[in-house]
Structure formats: C-alpha cells, structure tokens
Amino acid sequence: MVEKSSNDAQEGGAVAGKPNMKLDEREIERVFDRLGRLGTAIIDSSSIIYMQKAGFLETVSGVIKLMTIPQVLEEIGELELPVHVIDPVFDSDEEVTDRLLFAAAVNLHKPMISEDRAILLKCKSEGMEYYNAYNMLVLLRLRGILDGDEFCAFEKKLLSVAHYGRFVIDYVACLKQYLRKLL
Questions:
Q1: In the chain, what are the domain boundaries?
Q2: DSSP one-letter string for 25-46
Q3: Which CATH code is given to the segment(s) 37-164?
Q4: What global pTM score does this model have?
Q5: 66, 88, 105, 126: least buried by Cβ within 10 Å?
C-alpha cells in the first residue's frame, strides 16, 4: 500500500462514496467470500494500532481470532490486547519482527493483516491471503456486525489515523458500493 497524506484519503471521490476504479463483480464476490470465511489471521503491529485507535480492534477480535507473536506486543508496548500470542512454531534465526511474523503466517497457513506494503507484497507474491485494517472494517459490515452508520463512524476514525493511498481508498469504495446492493 502506498502511503500518502491523510488529505489524499479524505478528498471527495471514493471516500465520498463513488469509487474512482471499477472492480469486476466476480473479484468482489471472491473478496467477500474470503472475508465471509475468514476465521483466523496473523496480525502485525500497525494493523493493531490502527484498529485500536479507530476503536474497532475488540470488535474484530470477537469475530475472528487474531494471532500475533510476542515481538509485536513488545513493539507496541502493550501486553493486554485482544489478540492471541503465539510462539513461533518453527526454527528461525530471523530477528526482524516482520520476517518472524511472515514466517508464522506461512508456517501456520494463515492470512496476514498488515498495513506494511512490503509485507503485503510478499504475501501477494507467495499467493497468501492478506488484508489491512480497512478490510477488517468491511468484514464487520459484511457480516452484519456494524450497520451503515457505525461503519461510517469507524471509517472516519480509521481514516484520521491511517494514511491509505488512492488505490486502497478506491478499492474499498468499490467494496462498499457492492455492499450497499447486498445489505
């Protein structure tokens, strides 16, 4: 994900409701199918922080099992979070938290939730499922946990702390537009 200023994320267009891109309906249905089946995911510090600041981390953790490694909690500086801490179940001489987290996702065959572009691109190149905090907000709406007003309130909070690029904003706008037809 390309990080840009929050002004980019809040300028008309997609955030106002109309996407600046068009996704194939089959692609949207595949995304919704994956989100509908998502039960467990490995999460990194940036996604925890974004969801926590936006106020929906606990809600997401009540819907899907969020797992992370101890190094992520140390990075955040908070040990009491609604996530399951896992010990790496593999031998690794990796010392970088992102690499350890990615290795845990690979070894456990779990999707990754991250805001880190490098991690997400690595997931994509490995054919792994991957999401970000904004996707988790869509998941909550898709599953009927949030109504439209609640979704919008959390979205506004998320976009005040996260700095998503135009592609992510437009992508989620396409998902939201399709959601309106479903719900």
A1: 37-164
A2: HHHHHHHHHHHHH--EEEE-HH
A3: 3.40.50.1010
A4: 0.85
A5: 126
